[in-house]
Design a protein that fits this description.
Layout (H helix, E strand, L loop, with lengths): L2 H7 L11 E6 L3 E7 L19 H20 L6 E13 L8 E10 L4 E10 L2 E14 H5 L2
Antiparallel strand pairs: 1-2, 2-4, 3-6, 4-5, 5-6
Length: 149
């Protein structure tokens, strides 16, 4: 999937859209996505000016976005009525920093895919080294439930 196809599924846009391309997709099983990390990313201005590195929460978000594509392609919910949101994260580990110029390979596997709550296992590698791993939970929620708050 190219960036235009990614944007048809994910509601995020710059500067929070963290998937540039989907390299592999096995519905119901796994997804492999790519993110090219550039010095133009806005978070590098403050994290950290003398040694720019990607914040860990952005790595988690990249895994969640890849997982969101996997869940959508498997469950095929109505995006005009429902959206996926974080429900939790477990076992997060950051093992290697990600710097401008790096290319992140984001692999997410389905542990359990359900309309209510899905569990995903994610990993990010850079230059064949593990940068981050996590178990991510996403929930399908009605958009109207957020508008009533």
């Amino acid at each position: 999937m190219n960036i235009l196809e990614v944007m048809e599924i994910l509601p995020q846009r710059y500067p929070i859209l963290l998937i540039d391309r989907v390299l592999e997709l096995e519905e119901g099983k796994r997804i492999v996505a790519l993110k090219n990390v550039t010095i133009g990313e806005p978070y590098f201005q403050g994290h950290f000016p003398t040694l720019p590195m990607m914040p860990g929460v952005y790595m988690l978000e990249a895994m969640a976005q890849a997982g969101g594509i996997l869940v959508y392609k498997t469950i095929k919910f109505d995006m005009s009525k429902d959206m996926l949101v974080y429900a939790g994260v477990d076992g997060v580990r950051f093992k290697r920093p990600v710097f401008p110029g790096d290319q992140m390979i984001i692999e997410v596997e389905a542990v359990s895919l359900k309309k209510g709550l899905s569990k995903l296992s994610g990993a990010i590698t850079v230059k064949n080294e593990t940068a981050a791993t996590a178990q991510i939970y996403v929930a399908l929620r009605s958009i109207d439930s957020f508008r009533n708050h």
